[in-house]
Amino acid sequence: MATDRTLERYAWLSVGAALATIALKTMAWAVTGSVGMLSDALESLINLAAALLALSMLRLAAAPPDAAHPYGRFKAEYFASGAEGALIAFASLSIAVAAVPRLASPQPIDAPGLGIALSVAATAINLGVALAMLSAGKRLHSIAIEADGHHLMTDVWTSVGVVAGVALVAVTGWLILDPLIALAVAVHILWTGFMLMRRSFAGLLDAAIPKPEVADIEKIFAEYRRRYGVEFHALRTRQAGARRFVSFHLLVPDAWPVDRAHQLSEEIEERIRSLVPQAITLTHIEPISQPASYDDIKLER
Length: 301
Prior knowledge:
Helix content is about 70%, strand content about 10%.
């Protein structure tokens, strides 16, 4: 699918950005000796691991259904997103471990100007790629790409904090600012990692599709009730990565032939797919006057 290839291109873009920023930030740390710069470089290493993981999970999610996985492997994206959240949390702890000893024994920073310049260049790369990935993740409904974009944005905020810390140390001579800002950045990105893991767990639990999309489906149902006197119930939805799954029961007049009921269900499903991105639909047709048709009405969302 074209969408799958597009997602993979964004994943490769993230890999390229990680490699470039690792080089720049490692040089910045080498020339300054700043613990903040070290924490920034460590996070870029984790960015690379996260980007490679996202790439592998996107490829897995795009694999066609088979006998062992008849519904596909779309949930693989949630594993990538959850793992990225965990890696972000690990980066936060790594920063704290590197910064805490410097609170007791602050160290001078060498060549702050060159270190700042290198870090700013790396930040510009990350910012551009992060904004592109966040936009693409929302547009293409890919939690893995969106998570990678959030991961890169945490790196941007880390770098902004580190640059500010190094600049303030250079201007004021307050060496304690370097580890303090590193710790503040660690707390900020820890929260981002937690939110990513929370979203991933919700997806693995078969969360419903967003309420606005459910409302669009209900509007379609209301239209067909008026036009044909049919009824609907047992609407259930879930999402797995970029895919949406929609199932419902369509109750038609007893006198309708099978081909008419099937044609109407195909029309309704097509309308739903036009409004709900990448939806896979399933309709169960029942006679409207049979009491047994209403036994499962409790399955409404």
